[in-house]
Write a structure and sequence with these properties.
Blueprint lengths: L2 H6 L8 H13 L11 H22 L5 H11 L11 H11 L8 H26 L1
Helix pairs in contact: 3-4, 3-6, 4-5, 5-6
C-alpha cells in the first residue's frame, strides 16, 4: 500500500480505526460498500431474510412457477450465484433454468434460447422488485 493512498483515503474525522482501515482497503482495491451498512451482524441476517422473502414473492409474480414451494426452490438455487451487487449472473439463470424447465433438453435449440432468455428477464425483474421492497 502506498503512502499516497493512506493520505488520500476519504475520512470524516471522528471515525474508528476499523472504519479508516476499511476505507483504506476500499480505496486501494477500488471496492465499494453496499449502503446502508448493518450496524450489527444480526442486521445483515435480517436484511437477507427480508430480501429472500421479497425475492420469493417477486419470483412467484414474474416467473412461471407452480406455487410457493417452487418459487422457494428457485430462490434458494439462485441466491448463491448472485453477483456482489446482487445482480443476476449466468450461473444464477442456469440454476433457475434447471428448476423451471427440467424437460428443456428435449426442446430445439431456438426454443431453449428463447425460454432461457425469458427466464433471465423474469429473474432480473424479480430481483429489481425485491431490491425495491427492502430499500
Amino acid at each position: 500500500m502506498t503512502t499516497s493512498t493512506v493520505h488520500t483515503a476519504p475520512s470524516t474525522g471522528g471515525d474508528s480505526a476499523f472504519d479508516r482501515a476499511c476505507r483504506l482497503i476500499q480505496t486501494e482495491l477500488g471496492g465499494r460498500r453496499i449502503a446502508p451498512e448493518p450496524e450489527h451482524w444480526l442486521d445483515q441476517l435480517v436484511r437477507n431474510r427480508h430480501h429472500k422473502t421479497a425475492f420469493i414473492t417477486a419470483v412467484r409474480r414474474h416467473c412461471l412457477v407452480s406455487g410457493v414451494v417452487e418459487a422457494c426452490r428457485v430462490v434458494e438455487a439462485v441466491y448463491p450465484y448472485l453477483d456482489t451487487d446482487g445482480g443476476c449472473t449466468d450461473a444464477a439463470v442456469d440454476a433457475a433454468w434447471r428448476i423451471l424447465e427440467p424437460e428443456a433438453h428435449r426442446w430445439s435449440e431456438d426454443q431453449q434460447d428463447t425460454r432461457r432468455s425469458s427466464t433471465g428477464e423474469c429473474l432480473a425483474d424479480a430481483l429489481t422488485e425485491a431490491d425495491a421492497a427492502v430499500a
